[in-house]
Please model this.
Amino acid sequence: MAGHTPDKRQSERLAKLDALKAQIAKMEGNATKRFGRLAIRAGLAELNLSDADLLRELLAIAARFRNGSEIAAGDGAYAPLPGGQDEKEARHGR
Model:
């Protein structure tokens, strides 16, 4: 940035800040879509739960994982289902 005026540097920093804000918004949008899809698959959309009740339960789930009492499956992994099948096998009738 040698030779740039203070106004030019400020403009460049503001542009970087705007780009980071846009990146955060995109990441939040992607997370929202992901959790929405998973909630629908889990049948939560069919339940008559208030936002407060649903939030309380989601916070409890998050606390269980944070405290290490549950081991989260890695990204793209399928959680085991009763009977020893995983979710992928169950969906494909194996």
Q: What stands out?
A: Residues 9-67 form one domain. Helices lie at 6-41, 51-66, 87-91. The chain has three helices and no strands.
